[in-house]
Amino acid sequence: MVLNSCLADDGYYRTQTYLRGKVGGYLYAGGPCFVQCLATVTDGCAGVRACLGLSDRQSSDACDSCQDNVAIVCGDAQVRWDCSKVDGTCQAGRCTPNGRASCDQLGFTDHCDAEGRPTHCDDLLQVGPPCASFGLECREETFSAWCVGTGGACPPGDWPYFDVYYTGQSCNGDRLNACVRGGLAELDCALFGDGFTCQSSGGRFFCGIAAECDPETYAKSCDGNTLVFCSAGKLTHVDCTALGFTTCDIDPDLSCR
């Protein structure tokens, strides 16, 4: 929540992406240590910057260079970025997460690798989960690669990420009957998060921990200084002032200010 309050908020999609990253999906920089740092923030965006390792760029700093393991970043953001904070190494003025390969977006074609994982390039090589672990298959379509359901055809939907996108249709016990990139499949909800089972709210079906709200469609709101939002199907209240913000203020991008 503090990250989404200080940077652009893609809300539900960011949360789902973090969860899938645990089983081999799109990964944000930082990994578990970064998330644990965010969970301790009580001084608002200053704390988020500290977790990211960001500080103001000095006038003497040369753009796109490294000072030990600190990247000097120019452009829209004029900052020093301590790569060690996100488990990375400074290379040519940018932080590259350790163990991650760089790639050239212009020359890269999304594809399924030898283990049946969709691969994608956004300067760093992004490798999705083994599709078969979800009961899916990796399929290359035009310039993209996806995990796709192996059942009958269904409306594919529109999803900005390359890993596992599903639209729930019904529950079969703890498992979700879903349309995955245009193919029907039955998904084990436990693969998406600890304690996740199939839930239903307002006639919609999803993998989550409760059925108090639909995490994809629930509109976050303010109750005084308290942010009210849907977390994996659980209606959640968080006091923005306890996290070091001044107030709760909903707009298209931010939550607490």
Per-chain topology:
Elements: H1 2-6, H2 11-21, H3 31-38, H4 45-52, E1 54-56, E2 65-67, E3 70-73, E4 79-82, E5 88-91, E6 94-97, E7 111-112, E8 118-121, E9 125-127, E10 137-141, E11 144-148, E12 166-172, E13 175-180, E14 183-188, E15 197-201, E16 204-208, E17 221-223, E18 226-231, E19 234-239
Question: Brief overview, please?
Answer:
With 257 residues, this protein is mostly beta strands.
Strand content: 25-35%
The class by helix and strand makeup works out as mainly beta
How helical, in percent, are the residues? Answer: 10-25%
Topology, number of strands: 19
Q: Order of strands in the sheet with the most strands? A: 1-4-3-2
The rounded distance between the terminal residues' Cα atoms is: 11 Å
What does the overall shape look like? flat
Radius of gyration: 20 Å
Largest sheet report = 4 strands, antiparallel
Series of secondary-structure elements, N-terminal to C-terminal: HHHHEEEEEEEEEEEEEEEEEEE
Q: What's the helix count? A: 4
Mean pLDDT score, rounded? 86
Unreliable parts: none
